[in-house]
Design goal:
Length: about 270
């Protein structure tokens, strides 16, 4: 995904910022801007999703907007999601964009959806757990203020309100958030980011003695990080803890095995 926070810019925005028509033309000639459609431009480093949204009409919404704002997004889908306002129209009938028709409220920016609106779009489009991990990512990065939390509280369904109540602002990763969300109905005492004597901070402590660590997409095999993990696990065993370690693919795509391993380990403790 491209690193640009605002890869799409409209001619009106440039003129309001003091650009002249001649300066816009010079920027196009120099490659500093690319024309997506009349009156809409993208930065040279814009990713394919941003370009598709600019050509389509509207603004980046849902998971597309969330990724560009730096949120941890559960779904790997790369279909562009577009926020469409009443009175808007699509300029590209042949694209594969997913449209979100959602009217801005009085005083809300009409150029792009608020972060709270983006999160609600994720809930409606991808469901509760995708909403939960994106929500905790936003809270962890202090991107969602009190007004945003109150707006969400007033505009969510029952699943969204459950996720909002469970959410925290110290989740270390989306995998940790996903672990807590999927374990929530098993009546387990799950604590995250716990300091364990002789071990350090662990991702999750279930009950009194089961440590669960969730590793990101990077592969630790053959690296110094892998050795560090083994030392931590050995220290934990010395102090009477059992450690289960799962990678991204297991947590996201093989949850039944992860849950069975956790319940099996707890039954033996």
């Amino acid at each position: 995904m491209c690193e640009l926070r605002h890869p799409i810019v409209r001619l009106r925005q440039l003129l309001d910022d003091g650009w002249s028509q001649r300066r816009v033309q010079r920027a196009l000639y120099a490659g500093e801007l690319r024309r997506a459609r009349p009156g809409v431009f993208v930065a040279p480093g814009a990713c394919a999703e941003a370009v598709a949204v600019a050509r389509h009409g509207g603004s980046m919404g849902c998971v597309t907007a969330a990724r560009h704002r730096g949120l941890w997004v559960l779904d790997d889908e790369r279909t562009p999601h577009v926020w469409m306002r009443p009175g808007g129209r699509s300029y590209d009938d042949d694209c594969s964009c997913t449209e979100h028709w959602d009217a801005p409220e009085l005083g809300e920016d009409r150029h792009e959806p608020s972060l709270a609106r983006v999160l609600r779009q994720i809930l409606a489009c991808h469901g509760g757990e995708a909403f939960f991990v994106a929500l905790e990512s936003a809270r962890r990065q202090r991107l969602l203020d009190g007004d945003g939390m109150r707006w969400l509280s007033a505009h969510l369904n029952a699943v969204g309100r459950e996720a909002l109540a469970l959410s925290r602002d110290d989740a270390d990763s989306g995998l940790e958030s996903l672990l807590r969300w999927r374990l929530r109905h098993l009546d387990l005492a799950v604590r995250t980011q716990v300091s364990v004597a002789g071990v350090g901070i662990v991702d999750a402590l279930i009950g009194d003695r089961l440590i669960v660590e969730v590793d990101g997409r990077q592969n630790h095999d053959g690296s110094p990080l892998r050795h560090k993990d083994l030392v931590r696990d050995a220290n934990a065993a010395m102090w009477g803890y059992v450690t289960l370690r799962f990678d991204y693919a297991m947590v996201v795509h093989d949850w039944e095995l992860v849950e069975a391993a956790i319940l099996g380990a707890l039954a033996r403790l």
